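Quick note —
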Amino acid sequence: MISFTPSDEQQLVIDTVRRFASEQLRPLAHDADELRSTPPEVLTRGWELGLFHSAIPEAHGGIADAQAALTGALAIEELAAGDAVLGWHVLLPATFAVPLAHAGSAAQRERWLAPLLEGDYTPLSAALIEPAWDFDPTAPRTVAIADGEEYVLDGLKGYVARAADAAALLVYARLADSLAAFVVPRDSAGVTVLAREQHMGLRALPTYQVRFEGVRLPADARLPGAVAPLLDRSRVALAASAVGVARGAYEYARAYALQREAFGRPIAQNQSIAFMLAEMAIEIDATRLLAWEAAWRLDRGLPATREAALAAQYADEMVLTVTDRAVQILGGHGYIREYPVERWLREARGFPTFLGLAIV
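Predicted structure written out below.
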């Protein structure tokens, strides 16, 4: 049965990450969004929290326990309550490394995980999303074809975070009738990083389209394990992120409604505002429980595709509704960029397209 009480270790993670998110991420989020960049010192301090290490199993040099996915969901919610984009930037190397921990070979883990676990923040990334209206993550248009002792990779990816300076990318592609993933050094012949993408949100995290044209890879570049379950881990991470963004917006709007007076009383006492806040809280809690259930199943090695998909789908709608209502509660102030609800609404709009940007 799922426990609704965090363990002592999980509560320590929650408290530590919440303090970091409120003291380090939230105060910097506005300027990072406006300047379209993340201060390097934030990445360093975030890396020092050890969240990356807690996502890698002990057998591969990390410190993950039997509840790694659930603990990851708890941590990602707290990061996102500070700022989701900065939080994803801090955890970006995990999108490359966690798949290697679960589906990579011993040689791949030795080559890539050991230096990450022992060193400083390194911008490694993953390439899953494709710029197509009918993109299907289980059957991407990017294809890999076996050619003797090599694979040949062709396709176009989008939303590839930090592709311009990443040492390597984990590229998802269709191999015959299955989903596969390959470790691709960025300087490989045939890899072209295009111009930085311009988004409504995600402004503090540089993303790019990347073209792969006849990229030849050795056979050992392919992850030998099952890749499709990794999509469930990303869906759980995004659902938890959506809970964090929505929670931040709800708490901000509630505090504003309790302080802002109209006609001699706080606007929180108006029935329309009170009902709106109540519905926001209900939706946030419901989504959190969906994410926890999916993470709980992942931690026990149970099939979690249905639960992860439900959590992600519900979260996509919930976070947009909650952040939009936060803007409404702030009235004219909600539309001003100096108030964070405007930024949270822009981030919320993109959640249905963010698959692969975070993972537990």
